[in-house]
Amino acid sequence: MSYRPENPLIVQSDHTLLLETMGPLFPEARDAIARFAELVKSPEYVHTWRVTPLSLWNAAAAGLTVESVTTALERWSKFPVPPNVPVSIRQTMGRYGRLLLRRQPDGLVLEADTPILMKEVRAGKGVADFLGRALDDTHSLVPDAHRGELKQLLTRLGHPVKDIAGFVDGEALPVGVSPLRKDGRPWSMRPYQHEAVDSFLAGPRGESGEGGSGVVVLPCGAGKTIVGLVALAKVGMRTLILCTNITALRQWRDEILDKTTLLPEDLGEYSGEKKEIRPVTLTTYQILTHRRAKGEAPVHFGLFDEANWGLVIYDEVHLLPAPIFRTVAQLQARRRLGLTATLVREDGLEGDVFALIGPKRFDMPWKDLEHQGWIASAQCIEVRVPLPDSLHLGYAVAEDREKYRIAATNPAKIDVVRDILGRHPGGRVLVLGMYLDQLHALAEALDAPLITGDTPQSERDSLYGRFRSGDIGLLLLSKVGNFSVDLPDARVAIQVSGTWGSRQEEAQRLGRVLRPKEGENQAFFYTLVSRDTTEQDFGEKRQLFLAEQGYAYAIEVRE
């Protein structure tokens, strides 16, 4: 291939991709490589991406082929693609499917496509602990209890397993999807929601026995709950739903009652307030990981065995607490659906989600949904605020964590928030932050209500309801507002502080204002950072996932 100066991509032999942002072909090239690569850095002019084994395995599980990946690189590359890159992609991506888990008359069997591969696998550190006897040179028995742990270990060793062993049916639960809401208004699924459910149930290419485990990735506001409740209806078995908090749990309950034939007595809440186990049981990650004392086992893990579940739904699966992974490893015979806006995990356990919940089955780019009008068009603005002279010395001599706190709680941000509110008179505005002292100061300065982790649930529900009704137009939220809070009329979000460089938090906070709007379908997301501080540096990392999805941040510099 000759030199093509109009193309924006440079493919390097170490599997990093450099993508120039200023040319007209940038958006199309970005969308092409985002299907199989991960964004590492996103400065103004050149973005750095990396092709990783996990990104390739997820792409393969979602139906991409080696040819489609290498063709995309060749199509958009400015220079000839280094010859080692297609070879490496073929080898890495080709590993997905070389090891199969099947159900055979002998039991659960691990099948390798060659004797050499099986020999290599059996020699892997720790693998022998999870394998039974060899049936021949390409087949080994696997104890059912080790199905998840084996997949988890082999993924870490670079040998992803394609699990087509099928599932044990749970107790039947007839569920219909109603064409009318409870108030009589009609509703219907969106095309991509149909596609997401079908992808989950069928597997990427409809292999017998494979469908029923995996992750659906959709942006906030795109209706992941609809995907979950329709999957529940199509599976038609007792279902356990894990949510991020009580607010999310009750939103799930309301949606299920609104759009299915299930009755209130069919739904149980398993929380700090109630311990109901019913055909569809909803609980939270927090209650499942609750321990009476440090070092003790979680009190409520037994919920996974309390009923004959046919489906387990993990809402916001990127937040799945690490202690639950061991329990998930033991649930491989149950159908598992993960729902999330981003597979990014700051703890690096994306591989465990892949192995234990399942690979990515469906992914819809945020900008595609925006262009189709299913989510609001969002304008992202980073406002760089000077640090007051009075804080310079303390900042200069502080330890790293204290430096970040000083920068994040910069009192000059209060006037900037006031200024932004003046730009959006009458708008529905959320102010989001991490530090409680900062949020309390803002609440007092703005004379606005604040919801924190200490706010009683009844008061939270009341304030959310008043915001939805328009009774209040400004609401301050701590980290409790990051996830699964349905405030569809929120048009403006102002982030005054965040959790270090958390990409998932940035995406979730933008998601608070992405639900489609009546009239002008436009939202605004402001991030306030202290200029020339570590907060500005961490802000660049926070924005990575959204940059990957096509969101550009306009920069405002305050003097």
Could you walk me through the main structural features you see in this protein, from its secondary elements to its overall organization?
This protein is of the alpha/beta class. It folds into four domains: 85 residues, no CATH class; 65 residues, no CATH class; 174 residues, Rossmann fold (3-Layer(aba) Sandwich); 188 residues, P-loop containing nucleotide triphosphate hydrolases (Rossmann fold). The chain is built from 21 helices and 22 strands. The strands form four sheets. It has a seven-stranded parallel beta sheet, with helices on both faces. A seven-stranded parallel beta sheet has the order 18-19-17-20-21-16-22, with helices on both faces. A four-stranded antiparallel beta sheet has the order 1-2-4-3. A hairpin with a 2-residue loop joins strand 5 and strand 6. Helix 7 packs across helix 8. The longest helix is centred in the middle third of the chain and has 14 residues. It is globular.
List keywords for this structure.
single chain; 559 residues; alpha/beta; Rossmann fold; 4 domains; seven-stranded parallel sheet; 19% strand; globular
